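Data availability (excerpt). All sequences and predicted C-alpha cell strings are deposited with the supplementary files. A representative entry, Winged helix-turn-helix domain-containing protein, is shown inline so that the format can be inspected without opening the archive.
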Amino acid sequence: MSLPANRISLEESQFESPPLTQEKVLELIEQAYPNPISPEDLAKDYGWSEQDVLLVIQSLQERGLIKSMEYNAYTRIHHEDKEIKVVKQMPTIASNKQPTIAIITAQYCEKLAVDAMLENKETFVRYTTVGESNVYTLGNIGAHRIVSTKLPSVGNNREAMTATGNTTTRLLGTFQKVDFVFIVGVAGGVPHYTDYKKHVRLGDVVISYVDKQRALISNSKEKPYVYLYKSGEDVKTYFPVNDSLQQIAESLQANMQVKRPWEDYLSQAQQALAQKTEADFNRPDAKMDKLFMNIGNNEVIEVAHPIAADEVDGVTRLRLHLGPIGSGRDLVRSDELRTQFARKYGLLATDVEMSSVLDSIIGNCRESFILVKGIADYKDGTSTRKWQNFAAISAASVVKSVICGMDAPTNV
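C-alpha cell line:
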C-alpha cells in the first residue's frame, strides 16, 4: 500500500456554486430530461446571471445539442431525435407488443446505454407543460419486449423523491403487463483496501443481492434485503418477493471465468453509440482509477489498489459483484459515515436516492426487481463524470445478459 505525502483536505470539495460552463449547463439539461428547463430556473438555482446563462444556451443550440420548447424552456436533442414521437398521451399498444420488462434509469448517459442494447426501438416523449414529462423507449432484447424510461430528476429533496415515485407509478400504470423491473445506472463502489476479491473497482458492476454470509451469521433473525435507505436514524430495507432475476445474476457471476456474454454486448453498443453520439463510452485509462482512504481530521491519502490475480498491465476485466446497495443523504456527505454504514450492512455500492422508485414498484405489486449498477466513483456514482459513460454501458450490458437468461414471456 503506497502512502504518498500529499494529502487532500475534504474541506476543499465542499458544495459551492459551480462555474458557469457549457458542459455544466448541458449536464443540468440532461439531468432534467425529458422535462425542459428554463434559463431563469438555472440562474436562480445556481446563482448565475440569467443573461450569461442565455449566452451559454445559445452556444449549445448552435452546437446542435439542445432545442427550445414552449415557455422559453430547453431540452436535450437526442441523437435519435427524428425518430422520437412527441405525444400528449401514449398511443394504444397492441397486446402482443406490450412490454413485460421495464428498465428505469436516472441519468441521460444511462438511458443512452440501455437503449443501445435494444432492437427495433421506438421512442415516445409524453410532453406536458405542467408537471412531469415522460420518455418511453419500446424495443426488444431477445424474446422480450422492453420499455425503458429516464427519471426526470433524482435526489434527496422531497420534490425530487415525489417526482421519481410518480414517474415510476405512471410507467407501471401505462404498461400494465410489466412483471420485471430493472433499475440501471451508475453508483459508487465500496472499496476493500487489502482483499482484491472483495474490492469493487471503477467499471465493475454491482447487482443488488442478499449478502449470504451475513444472512448465515444472523441466523435469519434479520429480514433479507438487497437495498437499504438511510434517513436520519431510520433504515428502510427492500427485498423482492420473486428473486428469479437475482438467481440469473448469481449464475452469470458463477460462470464468468468461462462465459462473459456482456463483453460482446458492451463492445457492440460502444460501436453503435460512437457512430450516433459525441459522447465517449470507452473505458477510461486505468490510471484514472485513483483510490483514497480517509484518515480522519478531514484528510484523505491516496493508496494503491489491491493487486488482482488476473491483472495485465494494470488492466482488469469487468467483474460482477453480488451484494446489497444502499443510499441516503448522510452517506454522500460523509466518507466516514458511508464506510461505517457499508461495513455494518455489508453494502458493496451506494447510489443516488432510489427508495421512492422501489416504494412505487412494491406499491404497484411488482414482485420482481433488481438494481444493476456500474461503478463510476467511490461515493454515489455522480461525483465525477469521467467514468460515468463506461459504468453506465457496463451495467446495461450486464442487464442484457440477465434478460437473455430469462424464460421467454408467456403472458403476451
